[in-house]
Inverse folding.
């Protein structure tokens, strides 16, 4: 069921497009990784659409505005293709509650920044691997979405570990910055490790070493570049003066 129209299923998260149409969010290939945290728990507003958690989640957070307990959200559903189930996914996400609305908003913003940075890094490593594999990566055919899925799987444990100290760190900007710096380091490390593993694997006989080296250097520059750091609201790196 799509649960479209005026009535909304209380257990289903929704997205609202720019025309005001409300549609339920469905499970996607690759599973329910932390990239969907904001969609399922916090909600996201963009220029093209708004994503809202299930009504039961919003109601729970409204009623229990307290920070003394740690709750969890059980998320599950079928990944469907033309009314045929491709897979069943389920996971458990930690659910953080705040009695202070300002702290709750700040927490949500920091989480969204971490996820946006992860999405950006996943895209960079995917592009980098294609540039290492193919002379003309833009014309290369085949599904390479597994690269991004692998990246999210590799960084998921680190993502949730970094969450544990974030609520307490919100009171001190320097503490939050340290957490985000560590997350940036995790993204860079895992992206380069995944690139090295894929670009240099034995069956990638079509990859030329010169092209692999150039693609890796480009990836390294991008990972440490201005755009990714800005996404995490990190200060720019100071350029060293040449003697």
């Amino acid at each position: 069921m799509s649960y479209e129209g005026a009535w909304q299923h209380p257990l289903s998260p929704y997205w609202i497009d720019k025309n005001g149409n409300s549609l339920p969010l469905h499970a996607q290939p690759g599973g329910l990784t932390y990239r969907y945290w904001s969609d399922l728990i916090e909600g996201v507003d963009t220029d093209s659409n708004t994503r809202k958690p299930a009504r039961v989640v919003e109601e729970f957070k409204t009623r229990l505005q307290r920070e003394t307990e740690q709750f969890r959200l059980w998320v599950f559903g079928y990944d469907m293709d033309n009314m045929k189930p491709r897979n069943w996914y389920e996971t458990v996400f930690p659910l953080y509650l705040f009695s202070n609305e300002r702290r709750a908003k700040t927490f949500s913003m920091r989480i969204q920044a971490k996820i946006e940075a992860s999405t950006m890094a996943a895209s960079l490593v995917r592009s980098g691997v294609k540039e290492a594999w193919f002379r003309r990566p833009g014309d290369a055919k085949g599904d390479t979405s597994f690269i991004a899925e692998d990246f999210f799987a590799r960084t998921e444990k680190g993502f949730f570990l970094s969450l544990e100290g974030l609520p307490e760190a919100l009171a001190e900007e320097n503490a939050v910055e340290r957490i985000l710096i560590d997350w940036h380091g995790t993204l860079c490390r895992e992206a380069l490790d995944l690139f090295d593993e894929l670009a240099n694997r034995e069956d990638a006989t079509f990859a030329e070493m010169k092209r692999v080296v150039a693609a890796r250097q480009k990836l390294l520059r991008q990972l440490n570049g201005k755009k990714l750091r800005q996404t995490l609201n990190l200060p720019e790196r100071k350029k060293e003066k040449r003697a």
